[in-house]
Amino acid sequence: MAKLTQDELLAQFEGMTLIELSEFVKAFEEKFDVTAAAAVAVAPAGPAAAVEAEAEKDEFDVILTGAGDKKIQVIKVVRELTSLGLKEAKDLVDGAPKPVVEKVNKEAADKAKEALEGAGASVEVK
How many other C-beta atoms are found inside a 10 Å radius of the C-beta of residue 89? Predict the structure, then answer.
């Protein structure tokens, strides 16, 4: 049997139906003990990928990391930002680090951070 060129093989495949081509692929996989898997695009892993993920982030959590010296003022601000009662707000402040507001947009997260820092608390936005 003469060796076929790549163009001749492609011409043969063009003449086949999808069922015939599928059967050929199965036979080829069995004969040569391989699998015909589609190539998968892999996202780059590294600093560039981390920067892109950070840029696309649209939900932020404001986390109270410390109450500071003005604990009562911080409790008042926590109550304003949330629908918590006095006891729940006090428990949240006492249990820092804890999230105050979660899954808010950048603008709301910045406002909450400013209000808490203005009351003397230390805050982190994630």
Answer: 21
